[in-house]
């Protein structure tokens, strides 16, 4: 009869415990990678919204004699686009062109992206909103609010 002290290698129980530990570690890493990818996408959308909000602030500063609050986009006005791209449009047309371009960028860059511009107590406020997917695949409304003193 062989004694236990002469055996070499791993027992079945040791192997199963090691397999359990490795599988738990791998599942945890997979969940961490998924969590990281989700938040990376959220960060990208947040950064894009911030850039687009400040883009509109700069457009307003460059055409400061126009009131951008309450402007409705005409969207896809080809004649207006060609005139302003050739830099031969009036400040009023430039305002409309800026809004068309900005709203197009919001819709193209952000899920259900939209924007508002208003003035509150000598402050220009540009609000960008969008929906994004969060954990458990439910939609969440996000927004960026840029407040600039005028």
Structural notes for this entry:
By secondary structure, the chain is an alpha+beta fold. The chain contains three helices and three strands. The protein has helices spanning 12-62, 78-85, 91-109, and strands at 114-120, 123-133, 139-149. Strands 1-2-3 form a three-stranded antiparallel β-sheet. Strand 1 and strand 2 form a beta hairpin. Helix 1 packs antiparallel against helix 3. The chain starts with 11 loop residues before the first helix and ends with a strand. The relative contact order is 0.14.
As a percent range, the share of strand residues is 15-25%
End-to-end Cα distance, whole Å, is 94 Å
Largest sheet, described in full?
3 strands, antiparallel
* N-to-C series of helices and strands: HHHEEE
Please bin the fraction of helical residues.
Answer: 40-55%
> What's the arrangement of strands in the largest beta sheet?
1-2-3
Q: How many DSSP E strands?
A: 3
- What is the radius of gyration computed over CA atoms, rounded to a whole number of angstroms? 28 Å
Shape: rod-shaped
Q: Count helical runs.
A: 3
Structural class by sheet pairing and helices: alpha+beta
The averaged pLDDT comes out at: 83
Low-confidence stretches: none
């Amino acid at each position: 009869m062989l004694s236990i002290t002469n055996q070499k290698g791993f027992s079945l129980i040791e192997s199963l415990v090691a397999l359990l530990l490795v599988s738990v570690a791998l599942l945890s890493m997979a969940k961490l990678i998924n969590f990281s990818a989700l938040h990376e996408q959220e960060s990208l959308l947040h950064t894009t919204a911030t850039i687009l909000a400040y883009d509109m602030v700069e457009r307003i500063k460059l055409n400061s004699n126009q009131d951008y609050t309450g402007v409705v986009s005409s969207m896809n006005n080809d004649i207006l686009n060609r005139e302003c791209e050739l830099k031969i449009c009036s400040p009023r047309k430039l305002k409309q062109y800026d809004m068309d371009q900005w709203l197009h960028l919001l819709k193209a860059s952000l899920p259900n992206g939209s924007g508002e511009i208003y003035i509150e107590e000598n402050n220009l406020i540009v609000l960008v909103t969008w929906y994004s997917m969060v954990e458990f695949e439910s939609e969440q409304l996000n927004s960026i609010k840029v407040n600039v003193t005028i």
